[in-house]
Here is the input.
Amino acid sequence: MFTLTGTGGEPVGVVCLSVRRSDGAGLVHWLHAGEDFDAVAALLAFARAHLGRRMLHAFTAPATTSGVPGLPMRHRTATARALTAAGFTPAITQQYLLHDLDNPKPVIPGDPIADVTLLEDFRGWRLAVSGSGPHTSRLVASAVLSRPDSGSGTAVLWHLAVHPLHRRQGIGHRLLAQCLSIAAAGGGRYLATFTDPDDEAAMRLLTAQTFDNIDTLTVYHRRP
Here is the structure.
């Protein structure tokens, strides 16, 4: 970790760096400089000089209590501009959404649709929706949900998918509603999730269940 100081010796920014053993890539885990463009640029210059000529990845540390990495683009515009000016480009982008379970909003009603299995190693639940009849006994939808974090009370929806042959039947809406109920019953205050911002179907599903679109989280890279 490196701290940038001002002319009076006061700290004006800090950056955390490392080199990944598996492939030798340089990692800028996180960087904070009060959204001062010049300070961010100075920290990035230090990172490049310190890590040397290698592949660099920036903002690989979790940006949220859910563990999703990336720079919050909406709230860190100066940092995003400084990254671009330093030759970094977006590599992975995810939309981060949040549902307030303490202040519930209407969700699409429906009886529980999935069988729920407690995952002890994962500290969460797996939800599975199976078809019926001789030709539909296979899994048609599933979800994976973590238990709420003890500090923030945030549960995380890590996965939700419906088989293509069973979409547009309301299964995804009912499965998501069941995930919200399980998270709330487990003591959660929030349910967080993330998705590809270009996945229109997922975004429609989440916003229909009144998830708030919090920010776009982006991991950057810079080639040597």
Q: What stands out?
A: Residues 37-51 form the longest helix (15 residues).
